[in-house]
Amino acid sequence: MKKLGLIMAGLAIMTMAACSSTKVTSSWRSSNAPQLQKDNKIMVMALVPQKDRTLRSQMENYTVSELRRKGYNAVSALQTYGPQEMGKMTEKQVVQQLQGSDVNQVMTIVMLDKGRERTYVPNYSPYGYYGFWPYYSMWYSRMYAPGYFTYNTKYQWEGNLYDLKSGQLLYSVQSQSFDPPTTERMAILYAQRVVKDMARQQLLAKQ
After folding, report:
1. Is the CB of residue 70 less than 8 Å from the CB of residue 204?
2. What is the pLDDT of residues 186-197, one digit of tens each?
3. Cβ atoms of 190 and 62 closer than 8 Å
4. Mean pLDDT, range 46-73, rounded to an integer
5. Are the CB atoms for 59 and 46 separated by under 8 Å?
6. What's the Cα-to-Cα distance from 66 to each of 9, 20, 63, 128, 203, rounded to whole Å?
7. How many whole angstroms separate alpha carbon 81 and alpha carbon 87?
8. Distance between CA atoms of 114 and 116, rounded to whole angstroms?
9. Which residues pair with residue 28 across a beta bridge?
């Protein structure tokens, strides 16, 4: 029975790992949005709570890296201006500063929500056994054993791509990250999924 418990614990860990995911849930591209030019500068700007500054850096840096991997001139707002620079400025001042940095498009990444989910897991699983006693003893020991609660973290993200000159919204993408093993891993997967979706929406030139 001890060996069975270890096996089931291992299966539970693998199941939880498999459930961890980051995926695009919906996206939209303006009907008159032009394909992005590789010589244009795209500034990536993440908006997350101040306490999650490390996450902001990760979301910006990995999205920048993924766009650069596709051949685009992307830069991070945090690395360019620091953590507080734009919070003290008016809209006009921000636009003027971005234009002064030769920025053509701005991609915002906003954490819409972060929450924890509590799920009850009963202490049994449907396994088949061919002998009477192994089957009976397994169910007898589990029938009166208590289950347990698991806690999962869910992030909701929205990314918007704006043309700086016209102010037009070119592209919007909504995504969800469920119970990521680390914030860095979430940022990597986010960048990969969103840039892939931008290519699917034909915003990015084919390599």
Report:
1. yes
2. 999 999 999 999
3. yes
4. 94
5. yes
6. 36, 21, 5, 46, 14
7. 11
8. 7
9. 172
Torsion over CA: 199, 200, 203, 207 (sign): positive
Distance CA 28, CA 168 (A): 13
Greater pLDDT, 4 or 129: 129
Measured CA to CA, the distance from residue 153 to residue 115 in angstroms comes to 6
Instruction: For residue 48, give the 3-state DSSP assignment.
Output: coil
Element (H, E) at 119: strand 103-121
3-state secondary structure of 132: helix
Architecture of the 22-201 domain: 3-Layer(aba) Sandwich (3.40)
> Rounded mean pLDDT of 33-61?
92
Average pLDDT of every residue of the chain: 82
**Confidence at residue 47, expressed as pLDDT on a 0 to 100 scale:** 92
Helix (H, G, I), strand (E, B) or coil at 187: helix
Amino acid identity, residue 179?
D
Q: How far is CA 117 from CA 18, 81, 110, in A?
A: 17, 36, 21
Q: What is the pLDDT of residues 66-120, one digit of tens each?
A: 999 999 999 999 998 887 767 677 778 888 888 788 899 999 999 999 987 776 6
What are the sequence ranges of the domains in the chain? 22-201
